[in-house]
Structure formats: structure tokens, C-alpha cells
Amino acid sequence: MSTKPTKATISFDNNATPIELPMLSGTLGNDVIDIRALGKHGVYTYDPGFMATAACQSNITYIDGEKGLLLHRGYPIEQLAEHCDFLEVSYLLMHGELPNAEQKANFTKIISTHTMLHDQLSNIFRGFRRDAHPMAVMIGVVGSMSAFYFDAMDVYNPQHREISAYRLLAKMPTIAAWSYKYNLGQPFMQPQNKLNYAENFMHMMFATPCEEYTPNPVLAKAFEKILILHADHEQNASTSTVRLVGSSGANPFASISAGIASLWGPAHGGANEATLQMLEEMGDVSRIGEFIKRAKDKTDSFRLMGFGHRVYRSMDPRASIMQKTCYEVLNELGLHDDPIFKLAMELEKIALEDDYFVSKKLYPNVDFYSGIVMRAMGIPNSMFTAIFALARTAGWIAQWSEMNADPEHKIGRPRQLYTGEARREFMPIDKRA
Ligand code: SDX
Q1: Cross-strand partners of 8
Q2: Given 85, 232, 316, 367, which residue is catalytic?
Q3: Is the model's pTM score more than 0.85?
């Protein structure tokens, strides 16, 4: 059994002095070459898109892309999705252990008493056009929380970090649901503390002041699962954004608002909305070949939405659970013949038999089925990414807190490979070509 290397040596083909760098090992996953001292040797590494760069140490989530493994604080996502509710997983992400019965009851109570928004915050929504995308509204409203909850924004104070984290986790469902109500022109529904996290969100989304609304328990359970599957995912683009923004000491609301902005992109969290748009445009199994052809065409920027992943080189474990949840919800609603779901399953089958997708190890990711489930639950396409942001807030605040709790953390400041003009002298305007 070969021992793990403790050093890496970089040698140069011009016989310059080789550089020795230490190697670090984690609990699981690839070892890393510690390049922090590289700068003093006059060279940098180059890795746009961070294809092979570890930007931090973390104890929160681990993904094995080859095996399709996703662990939160060591627990497999399949077991958490099966046995936990979202607040239990949020507690695990934030505190490192699953809560015991007393801790869970206290945590749930605290979160339920922070679900209301400051009354003047409702005015922020009214600054937007009625047809504003919910993600635009959430970016604005979450960022404006810095102006309402500034009594606990010292990022180096653990108590401040905790209360801000709890406020964000508690208020995101209200903010997301009100973003939707604002689009509809319906009155905002206040949170109901007697309801659990998922039921409360569904109530704020679908209830009106005119009649009683009782959340369907099967749909509420499915929604908890959707939230759990989206809670955290290592150093993805939006989490890395939250860390980079937070590394300057920015307050938690500004940091999370930046994370929402990053998640909105169709290559990231916006893919669930884009997937459903793609399926609706595809319309029928007879057009699957046309879309797959476009996805394979290098001259066409079209990508098969909901397919592929930077880390997973096998099925995203969340996609498998989401497909099963999709089936349960459609059955509960008597929509097992839902044409969009059937089209998605046929597309997945055909794509996974196509050499292009097989050779590039492109499998369905978490966004492939999530939109179909949410659409079946009556949630409009425009809210899919807002719900992803709602769920990912648990991971973002856990990662943001982990970074700020690290006494050695520094402001993130990448270097570059400069390819612009070398020094040149100013040219008076009458001398310019
Ligand atoms: C999420 O990072 C995370 O963990 C994100 C996430 C999380 O929970 O935070 O998991 C959530 O964002 C999931 C991904 C959702 N996005 C999509 O479904 C959009 C479609 N997917 C692609 O845009 C793409 O697969 C990415 C963005 C997800 C990953 O892109 P990479 O890692 O930069 O891979 P790549 O673009 O270099 O692709 C490798 C090859 C390329 O072909 P070649 O240049 O090698 O010939 O695969 C091709 C790509 O053209 N490819 C696709 C494809 N995805 C990759 N071709 C067609 N359709 C696709 N979907």
C-alpha cells in the first residue's frame, strides 16, 4: 500500500530551481497541494473556473462525483431525505450534529418565532414592477435586511452570526412567498407559527384571506424533501460567492443576497426553470432527437438543461431521489400520466443511451426533475429558483459562519495571468490614429 505523498515538487524545463510544496490530506477526497507559498517563487497557478482548485477547508459537505455520493456532516443525502425534515438538516449543517429531541424542539421554536418580516420591509416589494422576477425581488429584499436587522451584524461575534443565520433561515420562506404574492397582486399572507416549515411556506404561497387553506400533508412532506435536496453542495458557484463576499467582512444579508444573484444563472440554480421551459418547448417525444442534436452541436450554444455537472461524473444522487418524489407527488395528485414527466423520463432514457452524453459522463442533475415536481404542486416556473435559494440559504449561512469562525480566514483576492498591453506612454488626442 503506497503511503500518501507529503510533498509535491514542481520542476521547470529551463532547469530553474525546483519548488517543493507541502501536500495536505482531508478526511475524504483528493489530497491538495498547498500552493500558498508559491507566489514568493515568482509564479502563480492558473485555474479559471476553479476546475482543480480547493478554495477553502470545510467540514460541512462532501461530494464524491465518481460514486455519486453526497454527505452532509458525514450523513448520506438519501438517509437525510428519508428520515429528516428540513430544519433538522439545517441544524445539522449549522451545528455539525443532528439535534436531539430537545434541541430540535428549541430550534424549531426559535425559527418559527422569527418568520415575520419588519412591517416596513413590505414596502421594499412595492418598489418593484408587478411582473418582476421573484429572484430579482429576493436579491433586493434580502440585501435590504441589512438596513432592518443591524442590531446583530458583527460577523466576528458568534451570537450575532447565529441570530442573523436564524433570521435568514426563518424569513426566507416569507420573502419567497411574498415575491410570488406580489406578482399575483394578492395580499401578503403572514406566517402561521402553528404550521411546520414546509406547510407555512405553502400557506403563504397559496392561501388567501378569503378562505381556509390546509396544506396537503403529502405535498408538504415532498416539499420538505425538495428543500433538503437543495440545502448545501460544497463550494458551488453561489456558495463560493457567499464566501468571497463574506470574506471582506460584509454582513450576512449582503453576503446571502450575492449568493441569490449567483444562483439565478441558468448554468446554476436557474437550470430548474430552464429545464421546464426546455421540456415545454420540446412538447413531445418526437422532438427529443432535435434537441439532443442541438445539445451535441458545438456551433449551437444550447445545452440540455438539467444535464451535466462540474463534479458528478455519475448520476446526481439528488436527481434519483427527486425522480422518486416526482412520481409520489404526481400519483398523489392523480397526474401519473403527466405528459411533461413522461417526456422527461423518455428524454433521460434516450440521452443516457447516447454516446455523446455517456462519453462525457453527462447525467441528470438535481434540476432535471425538481421543476416537474414543483409545477405539479402548483408552483410557477418563475418560483423554482426562488425555492432553490430558500433551501440553499441553510447551506450558505452554514458555510458563511464556518468561514467567519475560522480565525485564519483572509479576504479572498485571486491573482491573474495578465495578457494586456505592457507599459506605454500617454498619447495626446491630436496624435491618436
Ligand atoms: C447546479 O456546482 C454545483 O454543485 C451546482 C449544483 C448545486 O447544488 O449547487 O449542483 C446545482 O447548478 C446543477 C447544474 C445545473 N445546470 C444545468 O443543468 C445547465 C446545463 N448543464 C451545463 O451547463 C453544464 O453541465 C454545467 C454548467 C452544469 C457544468 O459545466 P462544466 O463543469 O463547466 O462542464 P463543461 O461545460 O466543461 O462541459 C464538459 C463538456 C463540454 O463539451 P466539450 O467542450 O468537452 O466538447 O460537456 C458538454 C460541454 O459542451 N456539456 C454539455 C452539457 N453539459 C456539459 N453538452 C450538452 N448539454 C449539457 N447540459
Answers
A1: 21
A2: 367
A3: yes
Q: Which ligand 1 atom minimizes the distance to the CA of 239? A: 9
pLDDT at 213: 95
From 47, 240, 362, 388, give the residue whose CB has the most ligand 1 atoms within 8 Å, as the site to mutate: 362
Confidence check: pLDDT of 376 > 80: yes
Ligand 1 atom at minimum distance from 230 CA: 8
Residue located nearest, by CA, to atom 51 of ligand 1: 308
Nearest residue CA, atom 18 of ligand 1?
A: 306
Model confidence band, residue 4 (pLDDT cutoffs 50, 70, 90): confident
pLDDT for res 1? 58
| Cell 459522463 belongs to residue | 361
367 annotated active-site: yes
Q: Which three cell numbers stand for residue 72?
A: 452532509
Cα separation values, 286 from 182, 258, 341, 347, Å: 38, 41, 15, 10
Nearest to 243 by CA among 86, 410, 390: 410
- Please tell me the distance from the alpha carbon of residue 51 to that of residue 1, in angstroms, as a whole number: 29
Distance CA 389, CA 256 (A): 9
How many Cα atoms within 13 Å fall on the side-chain side of residue 195? Answer: 23
Among all chains, which residue has been given the C-alpha cell 439528488? 318
What confidence tens digit (pLDDT) does each residue in 267-278 have? 999 999 999 999
Nearest atom, ligand 1, residue 295 CA: 57
Q: Do the beta carbons of residue 90 and residue 227 sit within 8 Å?
A: no
In whole angstroms, give the CA distance from residue 299 to residue 302.
Answer: 9
User: What is the distance in A from the centroid of ligand 1 to the CA of 126?
Assistant: 36
Between the CA of residue 106 and those of 37, 96, 100, 118, 158, what are the distances in Å? Answer: 46, 16, 10, 23, 18
**Is 309 a residue of the active site?**
yes
